[in-house]
């Protein structure tokens, strides 16, 4: 399906700045090192991949 | 009188209905980065959105709303629920809120259909845990049928259920297709046939594709899912590998082969959907593989479209308005058993401890048929439940 140019541009800009994952991501400190990112209200469809 | 097959009237006129190459498209940076070239090329004929993953978010970005709206305007937006937990023994306030939120969403977007998953969520918290199987009994059938009616009444469009990859026993695998058929019958609903889920069962239970497909009402299949997964080694038997539906790898050749042989057997198929989790699309190589999988799927769909015979269009809507019971169907015993099982799966340190706890639980000598569970599948259930008990978490 063809999408309008302005819509595709808007998606491209959002993806480029990764704005899509900033608003709902809660970061916590992982005691074993590294950064644990807990996505509350995940953006993915985890149930399909919860196998 | 129109002839009925699996309860579907076959009298409507014959029409050509092309299959649509569809993308599971959610608000995820990696996934959208991978999907962008496909969207730009106009290859994505429809999108499937897991709407309830954003129920806790106050606002969706305007550009994402516009993307959903574009597909909604063309009646090419599919809703795929995650958290309704269809078979929880007790009806919860969260489930009612979930339905209310869906009802509100259908005033904003037009879904061509809405689907959910077979099973119940293991987490004590409604929005956590993983979907695992249930006893296939008259009790769970009544609960599932009740929930599907409420789902259909809330969204006002066709509703369907996806087959589950996980099973504890071969008997359960063999019975799932018919049970799904009986579940969707009262709402004249349909099935999502997830071919990677089927592939997991073929591998884990040593069955052939023809054997298993023969047990499904394929004329009820309106949507097919494709995805990848991973292998897990059994600690109980070092030689045994368990196929898991983790959606974090490319689609295996065997699953593409399953798509080729299954499409012609599903006369009411409309959508073929590619799924992959965004956190597995963090590299350019993974994104290119994802695009390649979509193009391969699209090519198979287009080949099928060229030889697609005209079919009687099935609405998959109830023949008449559904009569809902005032009180949702519930079962206290099932609720207690589910809570016990969830607790065991989420807290047991290993298979042996889980087995002992099960032996002392209400599930023993019950319709759960714990005695028939394959040890490596109980071991897998532990791994799944413990992986997802805190929700969607990953390490960077």
- The shape of chain A is flat
Q: Give the strand order of the largest sheet of chain B, numbering strands 1, 2, ... along the chain.
A: 4-5-6-7-10-11-12-15
Cα radius of gyration of chain B in angstroms? 20 Å
Oligomer: heterodimer
What is the gist of this entry?
The complex is a heterodimer of chains A (51) and B (396). Chain A has one helix and two strands. Chain A is of the alpha+beta class.
SSE inventory with pairings:
The complex is a heterodimer of chains A (51) and B (396).
Chain A: H1 5-16, E1 25-29, E2 35-39
Antiparallel strand pairs in A: 1-2
Chain B: E1 4-5, E2 8-9, E3 14-15, E4 20-24, H1 29-40, E5 46-49, H2 62-73, E6 77-80, H3 93-108, E7 113-117, E8 120-121, E9 131-132, H4 138-155, E10 159-162, H5 170-184, E11 190-194, H6 195-205, H7 209-213, E12 221-226, E13 230-233, E14 241-244, H8 253-262, E15 271-274, H9 284-306, E16 311-312, H10 332-347, H11 351-359, H12 375-388, E17 392-395
Parallel strand pairs in B: 4-5, 4-15, 5-6, 6-7, 7-10, 10-11, 11-12, 12-15
Antiparallel strand pairs in B: 1-2, 3-16, 8-9, 13-14
């Amino acid at each position: 399906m063809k999408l309008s140019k302005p819509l595709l541009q808007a998606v491209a800009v959002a993806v480029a700045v990764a704005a899509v994952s900033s608003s709902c991501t809660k970061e916590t400190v992982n005691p074993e090192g590294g950064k644990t990112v807990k996505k509350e209200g995940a953006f993915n469809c985890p149930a399909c991949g919860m196998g | 009188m129109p002839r009925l097959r699996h309860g579907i009237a076959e009298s409507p006129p014959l029409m050509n209905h092309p299959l649509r190459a569809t993308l599971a498209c959610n608000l995820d940076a990696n996934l959208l980065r991978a999907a962008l070239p496909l969207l730009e090329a106009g290859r994505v004929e429809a999108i499937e959105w897991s709407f309830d993953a954003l129920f806790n978010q106050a606002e969706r970005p305007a550009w994402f709303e516009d993307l959903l709206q574009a597909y909604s305007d063309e009646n090419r937006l599919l809703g795929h629920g995650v958290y309704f937990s269809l078979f929880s023994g007790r009806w919860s306030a969260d489930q009612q809120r979930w339905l209310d939120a869906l009802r509100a969403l259908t005033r904003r977007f037009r879904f061509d259909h809405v689907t959910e998953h077979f099973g119940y969520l293991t987490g004590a918290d409604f929005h956590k845990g993983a979907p695992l199987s249930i006893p296939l009994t008259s009790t769970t059938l009544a609960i599932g049928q009740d929930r599907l009616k409420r789902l259909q009444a809330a969204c006002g469009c066709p509703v369907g259920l996806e087959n589950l990859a996980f099973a504890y026993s071969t008997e359960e695998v063999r019975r799932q297709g018919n049970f799904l058929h009986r579940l969707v019958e009262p709402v004249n609903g349909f099935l999502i046939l997830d071919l990677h889920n089927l592939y997991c069962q073929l591998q884990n239970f040593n069955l052939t594709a023809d054997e298993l497909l023969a047990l499904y009402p394929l004329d009820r299949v309106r949507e097919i899912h494709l995805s990848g997964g991973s292998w897990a080694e059994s600690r109980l038997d070092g030689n045994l590998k368990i196929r898991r539906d983790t959606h974090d790898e490319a689609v295996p050749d065997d699953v593409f082969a399953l798509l080729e042989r299954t499409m012609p057997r599903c006369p009411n198929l409309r959508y073929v959907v590619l799924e992959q989790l965004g956190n597995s699309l963090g590299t350019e190589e993974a994104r290119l593989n994802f695009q390649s999988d979509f193009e391969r799927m699209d090519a198979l769909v287009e080949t099928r479209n060229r030889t697609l015979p005209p079919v009687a269009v099935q609405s998959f809507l109830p023949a008449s308005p559904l009569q809902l019971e005032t009180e949702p169907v519930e079962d206290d015993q099932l609720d207690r058993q589910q809570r016990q099982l969830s607790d065991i799966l989420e807290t047991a340190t290993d298979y042996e401890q889980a087995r002992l706890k099960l032996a002392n639980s209400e599930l023993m000598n019950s319709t759960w048929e714990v005695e028939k569970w394959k040890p490596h599948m109980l071991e897998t259930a532990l791994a799944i439940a413990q992986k997802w008990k805190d929700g969607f978490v990953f390490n960077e």
